[in-house]
Amino acid sequence: MEIQETLLLKLGEVVLKGLNRRAFEDRLLSNVSRRLRRCGSFQTHIRQSTIYVEPLSPDCDMNAAFAAAQQVFGVVRVARAMPCERVPEAIAQAAAKYLGGEFAKARTFKVETKRADKQYPMNSIQVSQAVGGLLAEAFPEVRAEMRNPDLTVYVEIREKAAYVHTPSVRGAGGLPVGTGGRALSLLSGGLDSPVASWMIARRGVELEAIHFVSPPYTSPQAQEKVMQLAKLLTASCGRLKVHVAPFTRIQEEIRKNCPEAYFTLIMRRFMMRIAEATAKKSGAAALVTGESLGQVASQTMKALAVTESVVSVPVLRPLIGMDKVDIIHTAQRIGTYETSILPYEDCCTVFTPRHPATRPELRDVEAAEAALDVETLCAEALAGAEWQWVKP
Ligand code: ATP
Ligand code: MG
User: What is the pTM of this model?
Assistant: First the structure.
């Protein structure tokens, strides 16, 4: 088959993994293959901290594959590259053909060479000079310029071939999903929890999600929005099992029997209990929330302590020290922002107290909660919960 454009995926932290490295690489390779499956049929292999993604047929969608690869955790940079023989003439020829359009737009260029194969008879500078000389002949109107050229031609000399490419782009970074255990993320329709989910998945954690609904106070569209957010997350997290738990009864009971100042706190304590029970059934070892210190009354230090005191699993809060602007930027980067700001009500917003307690004492909240049959309410919600797969 004719030589075809290839993707080069550079691995990040995976390479620091010492003895576990092999397991991390295997997982990353299978995640990449799975994520690229819908872009066509590819062959993937790993060598020297780089994954090579080679199309097996001409109808592979390289644009889609390039975009998909950037979202896979464990990959720090992605380049589209053209393989060629490892001699300067072939390299220059490949560059001229592959990057002809770029040369047409540029006034200055340089060649930058990396030699992964140290046995190669020329050093990097010699390769750059030889290839640069040939390209200067091929494009007489474009001048070689070492400082700030319009176009940089990257050449990599690897064991089996040389590769020519333009600058690589940033990948999602982190660790391959599946290498860091499993956690259950409390996913609302807001801005924060999708970002929190993404950040924890980026540390190699396989996620499940749980969403609480309060019909008729919350609409089917609000739930649909959460499913949409989950779907957006699958591009980096892989398929997600999303649990949907009924929360109406609990909220009505709280409203009827507890002081208004504690509505949100008691509600969050129920969410934690139900999430913990769901996590245990799923083999998830932690919960994930989108809480950020001081963002709202229920996210002060005291409030967080009251919330988490009902569970024994760790509660991961990756946004704890982030400002709202940082969170918004991340949401934009990962593509959840536009969906998150759609205006559907969440079960929290429906029963928001006018004057929430910001410095609650645990014993007061416990006393207020004693008016409820906590165990039965949780058991009912768990019994009424349903789940579905959300796939990329
Ligand atoms: P978000 O933007 O993620 O909705 P928020 O700032 O609005 O967060 P809260 O509504 O107080 O904060 O919720 C705090 C966290 O509790 C959320 O980040 C999420 O993890 C969880 N949570 C809130 N509502 C729900 C829900 N309906 N279903 C599942 N989890 C929820
Ligand atoms: Mg919310």
Answer: 0.91
